[in-house]
Design goal:
The complex is a heterodimer of chains A (199) and B (310). With 199 residues, chain A is mainly alpha-helical. Chain A has one domain (3-191). Chain A is 68% helix and 2% strand. Chain A has 9 helices and 2 strands. Chain A is globular, with a radius of gyration of 17 Å. Chain B has one domain (18-290): Ammonium transporter fold (Orthogonal Bundle), CATH 1.10.3430. Chain B is 60% helix and 0% strand. Chain B starts with 16 loop residues before the first helix and ends with a helix.
Chain lengths: 199, 310
């Protein structure tokens, strides 16, 4: 696997290592399916906008970059919103405002910036890796919160004990995200002890 | 002659964390005995489960984080026992276990262990349980009953109990909070051994009474119902999470009293002691900052400013 891609998934995981895209990771991860949907939508927008940002990076002047990246991500976020509303209306209503908000996600902007400053191969490898890493991280948070908070997994009953309501609330989202972040750091630190995180 | 040079402080205190925690454990014994007398075997079971899982949880988290094991300082045992005394006698044992583990692992261990927790672990665990499983924490039992008879607490049914009942603890409630003479006995022991000072317990109880009375409750009744007295003696006085100066402690106690009164009067829950103390725990660093004492030999900052301006 390309070095940039594996970095995006493990050592430089956007959610668990870089702390990017945290807002939806707290807001729409109360059940695993919504978290997975949000992850996929973000990843698709990420790959598309990174490609366009790579092309535009050659022509846009230094001063206009942030505004340009927001225009680009907003375009693709709107497309994603229409697709979700058209084909997955239930998921779209569950994700609500957080799909259009992909446009101003720190994850998208930082990756667009990276793409514009690097070769096409590195830019796409990074976007795909970060996208997959974000999907995995979101789904993990969603799975843990759905099992503990509602006693179900992807909608089917699972838990023998009374679910913990707190985990389904925002405060529980912070606690679960923090604990998963800690575990992820411990695991990746052990695995690639010498390899540095590439932001 | 050999001179030993070392920086101040030069006077050592014989007090260790372990000795202080043992004092607290001893002070809790009357409450525990009263709880067992009033509510029977289930109280013993809850206390055992809670203490054992708190100590085990502390050992596990210190092992995982690679810290030196400090379970001998007894602070985890105190946390476990205080949590159990804060639960209804009809709480299932696994709920107590989950609470103890949350207290020592999430609230205490992950924030750096004893001394670095910004919330009182036992109270944070109680709030956690209250939000997670409200049904188990708000099912009360009548005291001295052969069968488990459900009862309404004085906060839900203020007219149902006399002052004498409220004082002696012949009322439904948490295991440790109902019997006021036992709590006062513990308070006297803690004051006698200089484990705590009198300010926080006295001010907190008094402010709660005053604010509740202002909002239409009974002055004495509001101090004797719910967990006010128990919390004032054993939980608001937690060294780590209360302000250091006396002035700061008065602000802290008044804040707790006001929030308790507000929650009791307007809140969703009948009792607000848990959330009141947790909120003031969070405010403690700010209180400490604004009530800093003048350092000996230095001028007061405010006076200096006045001089510079005038």
């Amino acid at each position: 696997m390309d070095n940039r891609t594996s970095n995006g998934i493990l050592a430089g995981n956007p959610l668990f290592r870089l702390g990017l895209g945290v807002c939806p990771a707290l807001a729409v991860t109360t059940c695993a399916s919504a978290a997975l949907g949000m992850g996929v939508a973000t990843a698709c927008v990420l790959v598309c906008s990174s490609l366009v940002a790579f092309v535009l990076g050659k022509v846009v002047s230094e001063k206009g970059t942030v505004a340009t990246w927001i225009m680009v991500t907003a375009c693709f976020a709107t497309v994603a919103q229409f697709i979700l509303k058209g084909w997955f209306p239930e998921l779209a209503s569950e994700l609500g405002i957080f799909v259009p908000l992909i446009a101003v996600s720190s994850l998208l902007l930082s990756r667009a910036d990276f793409a514009s400053n690097n070769s096409l191969g590195a830019a796409m490898g990074d976007a795909v890796g970060m996208g997959i890493g974000y999907i995995i991280a979101m789904t993990l948070v969603g799975i843990v919160r759905e099992i503990l908070g509602q006693g179900t997994l992807f909608g089917s009953d699972l838990l023998p004990f009374t679910p913990m309501t707190l985990v389904a609330l925002p405060a529980g989202g912070f606690i679960v995200l923090g604990l998963l972040m800690g575990c992820w750091n411990a695991i990746t630190a052990k695995k690639n002890g010498k390899e540095e995180t590439q932001a | 002659m050999k001179l030993h040079l070392s920086p101040a402080p030069h006077v050592h205190s014989p007090q260790t964390t372990r000795a202080l925690m043992l004092n607290v454990l001893v002070a809790l014994i009357p409450c525990a005995i009263a709880g067992v007398y009033l509510f029977g075997f289930s109280a013993i079971l809850l206390m055992l489960v809670s203490v054992l899982s708190a100590v085990a949880g502390e050992a596990i988290i210190q092992k995982i984080l690679g810290q030196k094991s400090r379970i001998n300082d007894m602070s985890a045992a105190v946390t476990g026992l205080i949590l159990a005394l804060n639960l209804s006698p009809r709480t299932p044992w696994w709920v107590a276990m989950a609470g103890s583990l949350f207290a020592v692992i999430v609230v205490k261990g992950l924030f750096g262990g004893l001394g670095d927790n910004f919330l009182n672990p036992a109270l944070a665990a109680r709030a956690f349980l209250l939000v997670c499983w409200p049904r188990y924490l708000t099912t009360w039992a009548a005291p001295l009953a052969a069968d488990a008879v459900a009862g309404a607490t004085p906060l839900a049914n203020p007219a149902g109990y006399t002052l004498g009942q409220l004082f002696l603890g012949n009322i439904p409630g948490s295991i440790g909070e109902v019997c006021k003479p036992a709590i006062l006995l513990g308070l006297v022991y803690l004051l006698f051994t200089k484990t705590i000072t009198w300010q926080i317990p006295v001010y907190m109880t008094a402010f709660t009474g005053v604010f509740c009375a202002l909002m239409g409750g009974g002055f004495v009744e509001s101090m004797l119902s719910g967990g006010v007295l128990f919390a004032a003696v054993f939980m608001a006085t937690d060294y780590v999470t209360c302000p250091m100066s006396t002035k700061g402690q008065i602000v802290y106690a008044a804040g707790i009293g006001l929030i308790i009164a507000l929650i009791r009067k307007f809140g969703l829950y009948p009792e607000g002691v848990t959330f009141a103390i947790l909120l003031m725990n969070v405010a403690t660093p700010i209180i400490d900052r604004f009530t800093k004492r003048r350092v000996y030999g230095y001028e007061d900052n405010k006076k200096k400013e006045a001089k510079a301006n005038g």
